[in-house]
Amino acid sequence: MNLKNLRSEVLVQNTKNLIKEETRILAKVLAHFAEIEARKLYLELGYGSLYLFAVKELGYSEASAQRRIEAMRFLKKTPEAQSMVEKGNLNLSRLSLLERVTKEAKATHAQNVEALNFLQAETTSTSKSELRLREFFKLQSKKRVVTIEMDEETYELWQKTKAELGEVKDACALKKLCESQVKKTQTKMRQSPNARTAGKVLRRELLKAAEHRCQYVGPINSQRCNNRQFLQCDHKIPHFLGGETTQQNMRILCQQHNLLVYQELKSKNLF
Ligand SMILES: [Zn+2]
After folding, report:
1. What separation in Å is there between the alpha carbon of 189 and the centre of ligand 1?
2. What is the pLDDT of residue 182?
3. Å from CA of 250 to ligand 1 middle
4. Which residues have C-beta within 8 Å of that of residue 125, sequence separation ≥ 6?
5. pLDDT grade for 141, boundaries at 50, 70 and 90
6. Beta carbons of 65 and 36 less than 8 angstroms apart
7. Is the pLDDT of residue 78 over 90?
8. pLDDT-derived band of residue 151, with 50, 70 and 90 as boundaries?
């Protein structure tokens, strides 16, 4: 292809034609992405996500893959945008921007169309459009910037973690990672109120609340025991009488007082 001999106006016209061709191809690529996702074909091919498939199988850069997937998702939920893409009136970066913002705003279909029309009227740069679109949806645009210095080894580990999480953006990957961590902790902490004994976490909480001292208070003189040795978790309403294994129904007693309480219950012929 020798362009040197082309007349300038032909060069410009050819470029415009090529761009039209490019957007037509983009629309087709996005339609293919949608079908691959609908069939979950990437799973059969051994990839955990469409994103990983796009990066590893199709050879897109991480950012390019991300943009195309976002664009495809917006098109899927807003078919009104299809013809705009085909005509070359809506480019990839705007489509992915629309997806990111409408997703964050949990926009309805009508709002998606509104956002689409709103962005059509915008002629500024994508970053300015993003600000205006965020305003349009009344989304917080304030973001915190955290700079983290790390050694090469940690950096590589982080890249691997991101790939495993299927996220290209640091913030998205970190969010996923934190959420899974919190979920894990919550699962661990969830103690069945029907359990016979307090689990590790509940025991720790009870000890903390009791300041690691026996909570028995003498009924006559209101003297608290405060013994720090041989501490046990005790049900205020006994388990066999339907008392729950919860922080509300439990307390910390020393071995002696636990025995005393037990004997008192026994003397009342409760069991
Ligand atoms: Zn005691």
Report:
1. 27
2. 82
3. 14
4. none
5. low
6. no
7. yes
8. very high
Q: Which of 143, 152, 78 is nearest to 115 (CA)?
A: 78
> Taking the CB of residue 184, how many other CB atoms lie within 10 A of it?
10
DSSP 217-240: B-TTT--B----SSEEEEESS-GG
At residue 57, the pLDDT reads 93
263 C-alpha to center of ligand 1: Å? 14
Handedness of CA 175, 180, 181, 187 (dihedral sign): positive
Sign of torsion over alpha carbons 40, 47, 86, 17: negative
State how far the Cα of 70 lies from the Cα of 73, in Å rounded to an integer.
5
Quote the CA–CA distance of 100 and 70 in Å, as a whole number. Answer: 7
Q: In angstroms, rounded to a whole number, what is the distance separating the alpha carbons of residues 148 and 229?
A: 45
What is the predicted pLDDT for the residue at 140?
Answer: 76
Exposure b/e, 199-225, CB count within 10 A at least 16 = b: beebbebbeeebeebbbbeeeeeeeeb
For residues 110-121, give the mean pLDDT.
89
> Closest Cα to residue 71, out of 84, 58, 59?
84
Per-residue pLDDT, 189: 62
Mean pLDDT of the chain: 88
Residue with tokens 């090529």: 18
pLDDT confidence bin for 188, thresholds 50/70/90? low
Question: How many whole angstroms from 195 Cα to the centroid of ligand 1?
Answer: 24
For residue 260, list its beta bridge partners: none
Residue given tokens 């009791």 in the structure block: 210
